[in-house]
Amino acid sequence: MTKRSKFLKAWSLVLLIGMLSLAGCGSNNANNPEPTTKPTDSPQTTDNANEGAVKLTGDFEIQYFVGGYGDAWWKQVISEFQQLHPELKIKESAGAKINEQMKPRWIQGSPPDFVYIDGAGSNTRQMVTDDQLMDITDWLKEAENADGKKILDLLIAQPEEYQSGKFHAVPLVFGSWGTFYDKALFKEKGWEAPTDFESFLALGDKIKAEDEMSVYIHTGVYPYYINGALLDPAIVAMNNYDTSIIKRINSLEEGVWKSEPVVKALNQIVEMSEKGFIDKGSPALNHTDSQSQWLQHKAAFIPTGIWVESEMANDIPDGFEFGFLPSIGQDNGGKFVANPYISTVAIAKKAKNPEAAKAFLQYIYTEKNGKAWAELSKAPSNIKADLEGTNAPALTKEAAKYYNSPNTVVSPEVVIPEELVTARNNATVALTKGEITPEQWGDRLEEATAKIRAKEQK
Amino acid sequence: MKERTAAATVMTKQKVSTRIGTAKTKRNLFIASFILPTLLLYLVFTVYPMFKGIYLSLFDWSGGSETYNFIGLANFKEMLDDGIILKAIRNDYILVVGKVIGFMMMSMFFAVALTRFHIKGSGFYRIVYFIPNVLSIVVVGVLWRYVYNPNLGFLNSLISLFTEKPFEFAWLGDKWSIFALLPPSIWAGIGFTIILLVAGILSIPSSLFEAADIDGASQWNQFWLITLPLTWEQMKTSVLWIVMTTLNGSFVIVTIMTFEGGVDNATQVMGSYLYMNAFKFGKFSYGSAIGVLILVLSLITTATLQRLMKRDTIELT
Fold first, then answer.
1. B172 and A284 in contact by Cβ < 8 A?
2. pLDDT tens-digit profile of B123-153?
3. Complex confidence, ipTM
4. Which chain A residues have a beta carbon less than 8 Å from that of B280?
5. What is the distance between the alpha carbons of residues A32 and A34, in angstroms, rounded to a whole number?
6. Is A430's Cβ below 8 Å from some Cβ in B?
7. A119 touches chain B (CB under 8 A)
8. Which residues have CB under 8 Å from B113's CB, separation 6+?
9. What angle do CA A188, A191, A193 make, to 5 degrees?
């Protein structure tokens, strides 16, 4: 072989490697294509909220996360909306990883028009802090849905005011935290489902005495579960069912973590822990571990959400019958407190087609689509709708019954910065293990909140 | 005639020198053609992200916002007040020390056993010990989560055989769970150091051991006076490898086995805390600052270790 051909061979090898690595970069870029929407395609709209009168054109991009609720509902409403507006070019950016995939676009200031905020890597409050969502306060106050009904009147949970007096996102999914048990097991053992904390303790003593299973197992790896299902509703109950305390928590008010209702609720956890009700393995369990052990009757109660039925669909033993209690912390004769787990939809502040986004929002918030959500996504939507006679799962129907009952107080969701969520998680799980006291719990949370408050005020 | 010859000589000399010149350029070009692309990739994928990380650590950026606020060293100041950082550093060094001791003792034992004791089928064992290295760390983490499972796990079931009541300890849900991460980390990586030490021992001339045998040195003395000093380079490499992979990579095993850093940050390490801050708390630049901390601590640790483990090289002739 001549020197020249050797040289050429070596070079082509180098070039090949270079091109391969460049190809790697290229495919990365392909995930985040430049938006094709052009501001010049400005849509023609009228101010009439009734979408029948609106003629929408141009590009319209919808970002939605696909997780436990699936994408059947989204596919259905989007195709119906497309039929109503044939000239609109709808682009769906969807998937289980969509939040991460779209992140660069949000940072670069070319976000989609409409976004469903759910799943890992999404946080409505953070998006508001980052000034990514459109302030829709005035519009939403008057907005009517496709049937001509006022949207705000139809919502179970009202939009959260992440900034005082302002709406940036509308709750779409109304999942609910709660305490769950197996109705069939309770029937067999002759146990009555508790209606308040007193009867819960009494039943707990009984279960403990029988020594066949733990009273209460929880997801210690993700203490969101015990916070959302046990602590938060108890706080509202201890505040005389006045939900304003959650607003005080959400506004990071000083001293709220050491207020009487919070301390009382924390003492309930301490009591459960001291009585030995809490399964010792819990701190090491993730949600699938704890839920499957509960399904196998290793424990009588578990704090989780009503999505548990579809999440664990493959592991449910024969004859198992899901029972749901919104809360267990209320005093004798008190009301239930339902703590929602909400996913929202919002319009991007830099939406290129805000009119289409608004029309789409008006289109999806109808009773018909609320029922469709319950059937297709197997979870209650945030739209008030009678689910009897629909194909919605039994647990969803049972939960919906509680929400519609006058004996249930629907609490606003605790929405605090993620950093504080984690601080609270850590403190609560330490409390369940008896490693800290409610006072120390309060000290920790006050300190963490003060830090965030100082930063937000800057 | 003479002049002519002289002129010819000059010309040939010139020719030769230009030929040498082109040969040299060609050679340089040839070398450059291999070095440059590598250097370029290294710059783009290693040096640039490193400096970008250092740069970002001086800002207050959420990771999702369009605005960056320059805040100087405020992130590093915040770190001083952050108790979790201290815990994370402590946990990282528990892993480093535990892994170095565990790895070195066990891999030295296995390496000596596989080479010096003429065990039947030692080749087979070498393969067996290496199998965990081939497994993805994710698989290792999930496997060991089952071992440690408080109610259904292998370990508690084993202990329960000897206790009256079922033993229900949450190995991964305790204040000191960080120690429970040592066995899986060692199990998952030990094959590599065994292979390294086996190669080191095999490169020692057998005449040394034979001579020692004739002089009546015991196996133990042979280990201390021949095997250990002559495999020092391999041991040094192993220790540095363990330290660096632990400080930079313990994030994976922590996240897979204890998710968000265990009970009350019991297993939080710097890497996992970096991830939490950058991708969960919306504090990307604080995460970058933690990255800088990892960089600095890794540099200090490896430099110190290199110093401490410096020995005169033993020349085998």
1. yes
2. 899 899 999 999 999 999 999 999 999 988 9
3. 0.85
4. 418, 422
5. 6
6. yes
7. no
8. B119, B122
9. 120
Answer whether B170 sits within 8 Å of A220, measured CB to CB: yes
Average pLDDT over every residue of B280-300: 94
In whole angstroms, what is the distance from residue A133 CA to residue A139 CA?
14
Closest C-alpha among A370, A36, A357, A420 to residue A168: A357
Chain B residues in contact with A429 (beta carbon < 8 A): 263-264
All residues at 6 or more sequence positions from A110 whose CB lies less than 8 Å from its CB, including other chains:
A34, A35, A350
State mean pLDDT over A125-132: 90
Please name the member of A11, A123, A282 whose beta carbon is closest to the beta carbon of B173. A282
For residue A373, give the nearest of A346, A350, A393 by alpha carbon. A393
pTM above 0.95, yes or no: no
How far is residue A80's CA from residue A75's CA, in Å, rounded to a whole number? Answer: 9
CATH number, domain A51-175+341-408: 3.40.190.10
Q: Does A279 touch chain B (CB under 8 A)?
A: yes
- Per-residue pLDDT tens over the stretch B171-226: 999 999 999 999 999 999 999 999 999 999 999 999 999 999 999 999 999 999 99
pLDDT the model gives residue A25: 41
We find that the CATH architecture of domain A176-339+413-457 is 3-Layer(aba) Sandwich (3.40)
Three-state secondary-structure class, residue A346: strand
Q: What tens digit of pLDDT does each residue of A392-445 get? A: 888 888 888 888 788 999 899 999 998 999 999 999 999 999 999 999 999 999
State the Cα–Cα distance between residues A317 and B259, nearest whole angstrom: 27
Q: Does A148 touch chain B (CB under 8 A)?
A: no
Topology agreement, domain A51-175+341-408 and domain A176-339+413-457:
yes
Bigger pLDDT: B81 or A11? B81
Residue B131 domain flag: yes
> Does B190 map to a domain?
yes
Q: Which domain covers residue B181, as residue numbers?
A: 77-308
Query: From the list B64, B148, B258, which residue is nearest A126 (CB)?
Result: B64
How far apart, in whole angstroms, are the C-alpha atoms of residue B105 and residue B100? 8
CA of A75 vs chain B CAs: smallest distance (Å): 28
- Which residues in chain A are closer than 8 Å to B283, comparing Cβ atoms? 419
